[in-house]
Write a structure and sequence with these properties.
Two copies of one chain form a homodimer. Helices cover about 65% and strands about 10% of the residues of chain A. With about 140 residues, chain A is mainly alpha-helical. The first copy, chain A, binds a DNA duplex (23 and 23 nucleotides) through helix 4.
DNA sequence: TATTGTTATACTCTATAACTATA
DNA sequence: TATAGTTATAGAGTATAACAATA
């Protein structure tokens, strides 16, 4: 065994998840872009066009905070604001080509380390992780 | 080889792991305590006694930043500083009983939440997670 | 009057540089 | 001279409150 305070399945699995998550996080120190900025680009890559409030909701951040992040990304040329033609209070935010490329390249780099890990696994282990991912995603949403 | 931008195994599994880890992190004993503070207590629970530099290295944070975190935790009564008797430049940092209890209680809460999740799973899914935990722990150590 | 986006301001956490006290 | 810890100061990123434009 080990000297963990609660030597049960929950502890074992929980600690393995947290440990791997920490390891994954340490692998992405390639870009100068912050997590928050990157997350915004990722949402836009996924949903094409979002308003400021929608981005703030998705990142669970205040509107002023998101406004600041969007300003930085706009200055850097990664996204553009377009006033909504129907409701002129709204501003639609979309990626530029540069922004889209950044998100693709970053995802590629972030996955590079984990790709190598997966390549070194047996087919069976890889399948186990794939199945576990589905279960974990469902669990996280509860 | 792997040119697809997003929907690949590495991305899917990585995001599931990070998402579950984020969810687990939200379960803590003291709601007002930051991740950084909690991490310091966890290191001390594991290693008994550490210096400021050792804590800064482990959390990959600057010494002044760690100093500030340690000050907060000291003010709150969760840890104590003791000058090293051999090398008087060093300061040994250890948990108080209160600090140790915080860590135990946090682990208990995280396990409790995760226990409920596990209980609701099928035997097969639970076994998948258990097997995945072993693989993830091995991966994290590489 | 309510909603969307924005500005003003303050607080937390982080870093680098400089200082102190030991070695 | 080098090292461990600390203090001073500044830069991100966050929040709440208040304001402008539109519905």
């Amino acid at each position: 065994m080990n000297d963990a305070p609660f030597p049960r399945d929950a502890s074992e699995i929980r600690m393995a998840v947290q440990r791997l998550a920490r390891r994954l996080r340490s692998e992405r120190a390639v870009e100068t872009m912050s997590d928050g900025q990157l997350a915004v680009l990722a949402w836009l890559a996924r949903d094409t066009s979002l308003t400021l409030s929608e981005l703030a909701d998705r990142e669970r951040v205040s509107a002023p905070s998101m406004n600041r992040t969007v300003n930085c990304l706009e200055d850097a040329g990664y996204l553009v604001r377009t006033p909504d033609s129907d409701d002129r209070r709204r501003v639609n935010i979309t990626l530029t080509d540069t922004g889209a490329e950044i998100i693709r390249e970053t995802a590629r780099r972030r996955d590079a380390w984990f790709d190598d890990i997966l390549d070194a696994l047996s087919d069976e282990d890889r399948e186990t992780l794939r199945a576990a991912a589905t279960i974990m995603r469902r669990a996280a949403d509860q």
